[in-house]
Design brief:
Blueprint (H helix, E strand, L loop, with lengths): L2 H29 L3 H6 L5 H10 L6 H13 L13 H36 L4 H15 L2 H15 L15 H27 L2 H8 L4 H26 L1 H11 L5 H10 L3 H29 L12
Length: about 300
C-alpha cells in the first residue's frame, strides 16, 4: 500500500469516527430531557415552554434538527448557547486557552518524569531502583484523580500553606492541578517505557553490537531506544488525545476555569450547543492524536512504507 493511499484511508476513517461521535451526541442529548424545563424553571407555563421550543427549533422533527445542525456545522456554525445566546464556539473558545495551558503543562510533566523513569527502571531491572520506580508508577496510575487532587489540596494548601487550593488568580495555581493530571499519565508512560526498553534489550542485535565493541551507552542511545520508541509513541498519542477529556475532574476539583469545568455546568443546565461543541472538540483531539500516531508509525517503522509483495 502506497504512502498516499495509507494516509487517505486513515484520514477517511478519522472523518467517519467524528461523524459517528457527532451523530450519537446529538441523539443522546436530545433524548436526555427537555432543556426548556431546566432553563425556564419549574414555574414555566406551557406557553413559555412552547415559545422556547419554537425559538430554538426544538419543535421540529429530530431528523430535520439533525440535518440543520450538520449543515450549519459544516459552515462553522455550532449553534448558540441557550443561556446567553452567544455562539457556542465563542463560549468554548473563551475557556479553551486555560485548558490547553493546564493540559500542556501536565503533558510535559508526564514526559519529563515518565520516560526517564521507565528507561532507568529497565536499565536497572531487578534492582531496588527498578522496584521503587515500578511501585511509584503503579500508585500514580491507580490513585483516582479526584482523590489525589483532594490529597494535594489538604497537604500543600490547607496544612502547609505552600500553594493555592484552586482558581486561576495566581501563577502558582496551576501547579497542583497540573501534577494531578500528570500523575496518572506519568505512571502509564513509565510502565510502557520500561516494558518497551526491556523488549528491545532482549533483541539479538544488542549482543551483536556489544560483541563488535560498541560501548553500552552508545548501544542504548543509538539502537535500543529507537527500537523501543514505537510502543511508547502509541501510548503517548493516546494520552495526548485524552488530555482534554481527562481534565474534567481536575478542573472541577480545583475550580480551574477551563473547558472541563464548562462541560459539567453545561450538561447540568442542558446547554446542548455548548456540550456538543465540547464533545466534538474532545473527539477531534483524540482522532487527530491517533492519526498522528499512525503516521508516526510509518515514519518510525520503514517496513510500513515498503510496498506489499504480491503472492507468486
Amino acid at each position: 500500500m502506497g504512502m498516499a493511499s495509507l494516509i487517505l484511508r486513515k484520514t477517511l476513517r478519522a472523518v467517519l469516527t467524528l461523524w459517528i461521535v457527532v451523530t450519537l451526541t446529538f441523539v443522546v442529548l436530545r433524548s436526555s430531557g427537555d432543556p426548556a424545563l431546566i432553563i425556564l424553571g419549574v414555574d414555566a407555563t406551557p406557553e413559555m415552554i412552547s415559545n422556547f421550543h419554537h425559538d430554538w427549533g426544538l419543535d421540529r422533527p429530530l431528523p430535520v434538527q439533525y440535518a440543520n445542525y450538520i449543515v450549519h456545522m459544516l459552515q462553522g456554525d455550532f449553534g448558540n448557547s441557550f443561556l446567553d445566546g452567544r455562539p457556542a464556539l465563542t463560549v468554548v473558545g473563551e475557556r479553551l486557552p486555560r485548558t490547553l495551558q493546564l493540559s500542556g503543562l501536565g503533558f510535559i510533566l508526564m514526559l519529563v518524569f515518565g520516560i526517564p523513569a521507565g528507561v532507568i527502571a529497565a536499565l536497572n531491572r531487578g534492582r531496588l531502583v527498578d522496584r521503587l520506580v515500578v511501585a511509584a508508577a503503579v500508585v500514580g496510575h491507580s490513585v483516582p484523580a479526584f482523590f489525589l487532587a483532594i490529597l494535594l489540596i489538604l497537604l500543600f494548601a490547607v496544612r502547609w500553606h505552600m500553594l493555592p487550593s484552586g482558581g486561576a488568580n495566581e501563577a502558582a495555581s496551576i501547579i497542583l492541578p497540573a501534577v494531578t493530571i500528570a500523575a496518572g499519565g506519568a505512571g502509564v508512560i513509565t510502565r510502557f517505557t520500561r516494558a518497551a526498553m526491556l523488549d528491545a534489550l532482549r533483541q539479538p542485535f544488542v549482543q551483536a553490537m556489544l560483541a563488535r565493541g560498541v560501548n553500552w551507552p552508545r548501544t542504548v542511545r543509538a539502537h535500543v531506544m529507537p527500537n523501543a520508541a514505537i510502543p511508547i509513541v502509541t501510548m503517548i498519542g493516546f494520552l495526548l488525545g485524552a488530555l482534554v477529556a481527562g481534565a474534567v475532574i481536575t478542573e472541577t476539583v480545583f475550580a480551574w476555569p477551563g473547558v472541563g469545568r464548562l462541560i459539567i455546568t453545561s450538561v447540568g443546565r442542558r446547554d446542548l450547543a455548548v456540550v456538543q461543541c465540547i464533545v466534538l472538540l474532545v473527539a477531534t483531539t483524540m482522532v487527530l492524536a491517533n492519526l498522528t500516531v499512525d503516521l508516526l508509525y510509518v515514519w518510525l517503522d520503514p517496513r510500513m512504507r515498503a510496498p506489499a509483495k504480491e503472492d507468486a
